[in-house]
Design goal:
By secondary structure, the chain is α/β, with parallel strands linked by helices. 38% of the residues lie in helices and 19% in strands. Strand 20 (482-485), helix 18 (492-502) and strand 21 form a beta-alpha-beta unit. Helix 8 (124-134) packs antiparallel against helix 10 (163-191), helix 16 packs parallel to helix 17 and helix 17 packs parallel to helix 18 (492-502).
Length: 516
């Protein structure tokens, strides 16, 4: 039996080759792999000795030869194939151990040129892998170092690799090459600044972890990350404490993080079931921002997610430790804060230094539907410009709160209404089937959770236009003094007139933010 070994990732390859050699398997190798094996005293035949043709074109052509591919592709049970091999003086190759040029690592390097990336597109490797996988009945093809042990175990026990394992290895090949080709396609598309939606969409993700269950205990689940740097993403966060993140933890925390990224000043976001339940900002003090977020809704934060864009300090950690939280994420922790949080063995404490880094503008937002997916560009804008449409202009203070509330309502499920005062949410009405219910929910919850006058002098943000003026009427009754909304309804003038009647300032952003 013979094995052809040519790997970029040389993890465990010397040990594997030595075991193959000890089993009497002849080894053929190429380039850097051949050099490595010889240095480690593994007996190997160089590929050019097999083919009778030298490696050429700076290594671009090494294994693209009939003596390689005929040896791999010949079906052992096919008498005609075997007769042709004998006539052509070609021997079979029974094991192909190949992994590909490090294209992913290359494109992620700082300052890498297009020429370097193109040069790291493997040609011979995928060709050998596909050939071996096609002839899986006769050839064991290994592309993942984690499979070396399984192959050796079967060889030692049975003298061969089982058909079932070969079929499994075939699956691994096409997973590997599909991922590889998808990376190349997306790199070229990005290099061309091509924002179009391709006729055939190829995306590639790498598994980070499997989960105990999905959204509910009877569902399975796993977390995958995009191939790339993923800066500021939850998938790159370091877990410092607590249980494994669940499906719902990840989904909810991601929503909280995306909202947090809209703020530059010290801000804390508390989130529950994908909706913000309390958000607070302060010009300088993260502790004050935390107090605002917590006091906005002391009830819903129970079992929730809290994220902050400043170092988490001991005074905040102490208060957090006195309640039940699922996940805490911060760009840094003081030593004392971390010590306090670690006393809560189940709370998941995550470190994400680049927490404020937003998604690349060319990212996709993808949702699964039955039988397909729907794809859109990410919602990476707040507004392009806004207009005051009422007789009264908002005060500087009102405007500050309106823009704060506008950030929050963007990440509130539709129909969404947010009421805010002093850069603190005082009422959030998410996911209602009509807008007036969302408004009334805000006012009722604000009174219940904060106090009777919570909405007096507050501002209101709506993620989409008011279809009628009933929202303005309800806002006036609650003491709202300013409103920010997209505008664009057929009956906009009714809402404008009602605002003018009550002296409420209103802004149109001309940009809605539905979130489903």
């Amino acid at each position: 039996m013979r094995a052809l070994i040519s790997v970029s990732d040389k993890t465990g390859i010397v040990e594997f080759a030595k075991e193959l050699e000890a089993l009497g398997i002849e080894i053929i190798s190429t380039g850097g792999t051949y050099k490595k094996l010889k240095e480690e005293n593994v007996k190997a035949i160089e590929i050019s000795e097999l083919t009778g043709f030298p490696e050429c074109l700076d290594g671009r052509v090494k294994t693209l030869h009939p003596k390689v591919h005929a040896g791999i592709l010949a079906m052992r049970a096919n008498e005609k194939h075997m007769k042709q091999l004998k006539e052509l003086d070609v021997d079979t190759i029974d094991f192909v151990v190949v992994n590909l040029y490090p294209f992913k690592a290359t494109i992620m390097k700082e300052g890498v040129t297009r020429a370097e990336c193109v040069e790291n597109i493997d040609i011979g490797g995928p060709t050998m892998l596909r050939s071996a996988a096609k002839n899986y009945q006769d050839v064991a093809v290994v592309t993942d170092p984690s499979d070396y042990a399984k192959v050796l175990e079967e060889l030692k026990a049975n003298g061969s690799v089982s058909l079932d394992t070969k079929f499994y290895l075939m699956q691994k090949v096409f997973e590997h090459t599909a991922n590889y080709d998808s990376m190349i396609f997306n790199y070229i598309k990005e290099q061309r600044n091509d924002a179009s939606y391709p006729e055939k969409l190829s995306l590639t993700f790498e598994k980070v972890q499997e989960m105990r269950y999905g959204e509910n205990p009877h569902q399975t689940g796993a977390l995958y990350k995009e191939t790339g740097k993923c800066i500021g993403s939850l998938v790159t966060a370091e877990q410092l404490n607590g249980k494994e993140l669940s499906f719902n933890n990840i989904n909810d925390t991601n929503g909280a993080l995306e909202l947090l990224k809209e703020f530059e000043e010290p801000t804390v976001v508390a989130c529950k079931h994908g909706n913000p339940c309390g958000v607070g900002s302060d010009e300088k003090d993260i502790y004050k921002a935390w107090q605002k977020a917590y006091n906005a809704d002391k009830m819903s934060i129970f079992g929730g997610i809290v994220v902050t864009n400043r170092e988490l300090t001991a005074d905040i950690a102490k208060e957090m430790s006195e309640m039940f939280l699922e996940v805490i994420v911060a760009p840094a922790y003081t030593d004392e804060a971390l010590e306090i949080l670690k006393t809560k063995k189940n709370v998941r404490v995550l470190l994400l230094p680049e927490i404020s880094t937003k998604q690349p503008e060319n990212s996709y937002d993808i949702k699964k539907i039955n039988g397909g997916i729907i794809v859109q560009s990410i919602d990476n804008k707040i507004y392009d410009s806004y207009d005051v449409v009422t007789d009264r202009k908002p005060t500087d203070k009102e405007l500050e709160d309106m823009l704060f509330a506008w950030n929050v309502v963007k990440y509130t499920k539709s129909n969404g209404i947010v009421v805010a005062k002093d850069k603190q949410t005082v009422g959030i009405g998410p996911g209602q089937v009509n807008r007036i219910w969302a408004s009334k929910q805000c006012f009722e919850h604000a009174e219940e959770l904060i106090g009777k006058d919570a909405t007096q002098g507050a501002v209101l943000a709506s993620d989409a236009f008011f279809p009628f003026d009933d929202n303005v009427e309800a806002a006036h009754q609650a003491g709202i003094t300013a409103i920010i909304q997209p505008g664009g309804a057929m009956r906009d003038q009714l809402s404008i007139d009602k605002c003018n009647e009550y002296g409420i300032a209103m802004i149109f952003t001309h940009m809605r933010h539905f979130r489903h």
